[in-house]
Amino acid sequence: MEIRIYGDPAPQGSKRVFNGRIVEASGNKLKIWRKAIAAACQNLVTEEHSLLLGPVRVEVEFYLPRPASVTIKKRALPIVPPDLDKLLRGLLDGIGQSEVIWGDDSQVVQIEAVKLYADDTETGATVTIYAL
């Protein structure tokens, strides 16, 4: 299945302990991104769709906004933050929280991911999920 998520991909930071409670370090940008993920996942739900319960492979392309001051000649690929692993953390947790694709992101056993500048497309992500 393929999911196209539109919006500004946001990284998910680490969890922290605050006053004895585990708190997820997330800002407003991540909340907006999570809503976009949930909406894109919900759009895939049909009567034939069933929750994936076994192992899955995920392929993802993140499309990030290119800063106006950064030309293709100056920097072809986004080798600056956000880190790819933190973008993946936000995406995979967001798909899991949608509760319509898989039960938990621990089911992901293979990942292929890339981050690119959104020069010829809208910002967001294209995600392809394969049941193994």
Write the topology of this structure.
Blueprint: E1 2-6, E2 15-18, E3 21-24, H1 28-42, E4 56-64, H2 84-98, E5 108-117, E6 124-131
Parallel strand pairs: 4-5
Antiparallel strand pairs: 1-6, 2-3, 4-6
Helix pairs in contact: 1-2
Q: What is the fold-level CATH name, i.e. the topology? A: 60s Ribosomal Protein L30, Chain: A
| β-sheet strand percentage | 25-35%
User: What oligomeric state is this?
Assistant: single chain
**CATH domain class name:** Alpha Beta
Could you give the order of the helices and strands? Answer: EEEHEHEE
Mean pLDDT: 91
For the sheet with most strands, the description reads:
4 strands, mixed
Number of beta strands: 6
Q: How is the largest sheet built, in terms of strand order?
A: 1-6-4-5
Helical stretch tally: 2
Class derived from helix and strand content: alpha+beta
Q: Identify the overall geometry.
A: globular
Counting structural domains, the number is: 1
CATH evolutionary superfamily? Holliday junction resolvase RusA
Low-confidence stretches: none
Give your account of this protein's structure.
The protein is of the alpha+beta class and about 130 residues long. Helix 1 (about 30-40) crosses helix 2 (about 85-100). The strands form two sheets. The protein has a four-stranded mixed beta sheet, covered by helices on one side. Strands 2-3 form a two-stranded antiparallel ribbon. The protein has one domain: 2-Layer Sandwich (60s Ribosomal Protein L30, Chain: A). It has two helices and six strands; from the N terminus they run βββαβαββ.
